[in-house]
Amino acid sequence: MTYTSINNQTRNHDDVSEFKVPFFSGDDFPYWKNHMEIYLKSIDFKNWLSAKNGPHIPMKMNNKNELLVKTEDEWDEEDFKKMAIDNKAFNILLVSLDKAEYNLVRRCTSAHEVWKLLILTHEGTKQVKNTKLALLNRDYELFKMQPNESIKNLYNQLLDITNALLGLSRVFRKDELVRKFLGCPNDEWEPKVTAIEESKDLSYDS
Q1: Backbone phi, then psi, for 60, in 5-degree steps?
Q2: What does the pLDDT average to over 18-44?
């Protein structure tokens, strides 16, 4: 995973400048998606809500009790504050993308549009998402250690599958993942696995 910092931004003392924006170049979208959600929430939870739900639209009531969109000249202080939140979320998403991904979303006008388009592009429609989910669930259920495979590689392979499933909203309990991992090694590792299970050390994950 590669990271890049937000460039050319003026930060005040409340900003977390040591944090870096999760960078996305088209690979492992579920991993980036999860990290970007966490990142937006860590900066300001309202940034995440902007990406998830859409931007603030300044409105006013005319003398006929009709709701109209305000012009920029009519914005009040509260409107400016809310628009600043939306614009920051929008900027964070844009600077997190490489050139190819940026070109995909460059016509978007809000963080919400960028977020939705990236999800549609990399996860697909609901039907495509369900198909991916079914295939990944099958991979998870049938996952076993291959001949001559190292424990490290086994762990990384299982992690790739579970991260992809998490990106498609499947929820795992910690003990479920540990038991799955402990059930994967071949006969060569059986004594060690048995010792771990008997000690009830279900935090073992290496």
Answers
A1: -145, 160
A2: 91
